[in-house]
Design goal:
The protein is mainly alpha-helical and 331 residues long. It has 14 helices and five strands. α3 packs across α13 and α4 crosses α8. The radius of gyration is 22 Å and the shape is globular. It starts with a strand and ends with a helix. The structure holds adenosine-5'-diphosphate and tryptophan. The site of tryptophan has 14 residues, from β1 and α8.
Length: 331
């Protein structure tokens, strides 16, 4: 039997280059040898996305992004989390095996508490239960499909470890392998894609290069990359520049060697380095952008693809829930 690869993306904003190299691309590579299940984590999105029009549109954009990047819905089971009620049944069951202390240690929750404390606010101000229990819903997403590997960026590794802990707690209690223990699959060369300001590229930092904006906007965004004040003629260290780190993701080995030599030799300013980066980024993104726009022009067809995916996913999901309920004595 083929092994199972599964991952999800929250519909919380425009897809960006970090999502592409950290999540979408590695996932599509894995889909070549694994049985893949990829989905839109729309109930995870609801934690922060309270505007219905915006959430509705972002769900479609993320779905169209996967398809434009090359996901083949004939080969990959592709669906919306919200179409699989078994996810929520499993979440409730997993809650009974999840230590509250484990949730207290989740990075996202801890960061929110810390921010509140620093501002002198109540520690739990603005924190909803969806954020607090986020890792349990994510564990259910994963465990429901007997997942072997979860392709994600480094920032998600803690969540996968929590899914392991929760599944192990279930198996230990019933003294049998009721649930499969998943593993994280992190791409080494792109574990953290840097953003315009050199920090991790992230919607929450407002430093992203979006995947599907018009060419002009893409150019403008790349020209906004923050650089130091080294003069044009000064030799530059390619590995200390986020322009070059981004370039490496898009350029061939020869292109990388040639540009690195120009950095080191001096005589190339940051503006020129950015133009060269734009050229290779646009080369890769232009055909994807066209596909994306075509998919977004026919939302009913897109929704049909997602519904067909959900119809394939549900029997698999139901089998896991049945197995767990039986082990738990709720059958
Ligand atoms: P954001 O940080 O912009 O909110 P998400 O948390 O929605 O992005 O991430 C969706 C997926 O993309 C996750 O698997 C995450 O690990 C991956 N990802 C996001 N940003 C990056 C990045 N800068 N480098 C590598 N992977 C990333
Ligand atoms: N938490 C993930 C993120 O922020 C999204 C996600 C939800 C996910 N459920 C998942 C990723 C299951 C992998 C597997 O990017």
């Amino acid at each position: 039997m083929k092994k199972i690869s599964l991952t999800g993306i929250k519909p919380t904003g425009d897809l960006h280059i970090g999502n592409y190299f950290g999540a979408i691309n590695p996932a599509l590579e894995l889909a070549k040898e694994y049985d893949a299940r990829y989905f839109i984590a729309d109930y995870h999105g609801l934690n922060t996305m309270k505007d219905p029009v915006e959430l509705n549109s972002t769900i479609r954009q993320v779905a169209a992004g996967w398809l434009a990047a090359g996901l083949d819905p004939e080969k990959v089971i592709f669906y919306r989390q919200s179409s699989i009620p078994e996810v929520f049944e499993l979440t409730t069951m997993l809650m009974a095996f999840t230590a509250k202390g484990l949730m207290n240690r989740a990075h996202a929750y801890k960061a929110a508490v810390q921010e509140n404390t620093e501002k002198g606010n109540d520690p739990d101000a603005g924190i909803n239960m969806g954020l607090f229990t986020y890792p349990v819903l994510m564990a259910a997403d994963i465990i429901l499909f007997d997942t072997d590997i979860v392709p994600v960026g480094k920032d998600q590794v803690q969540h996968i470890e929590m899914a392991q802990d929760i599944a192990q707690a279930v198996n230990a209690n019933y003294n049998q392998p009721v649930l499969k223990i998943p593993q994280a699959g992190v791409q080494d060369n792109a574990a953290v894609v840097p953003g315009l300001d050199g920090r991790k590229m992230s919607k929450s930092y407002g430093n992203v290069i979006p995947l599907f904006v018009p060419e002009k906007t893409l150019h403008k965004t790349i020209m906004r990359i923050v650089t130091n004040s080294q003069a044009v003629e000064e030799p530059k260290d390619p590995d200390a520049s986020q322009i070059f780190l981004l370039y490496k993701l898009f350029a061939s080995a020869e292109e990388q060697a040639a540009l690195a030599a120009r950095y080191r030799g001096g005589g190339m300013g940051w503006g020129e380095a950015k133009e060269e980066l734009f050229r290779v980024v646009n080369r890769e993104l232009a055909p994807m952008r066209e596909k994306f726009n075509a998919i977004m022009a026919d939302i009913p067809a897109l929704d049909k693809i997602l519904e067909q995916g959900a119809a394939k996913a549900r029997p698999i999901a139901a089998a896991t829930v049945r197995r767990f309920r039986k082990a738990a004595g709720i059958d």
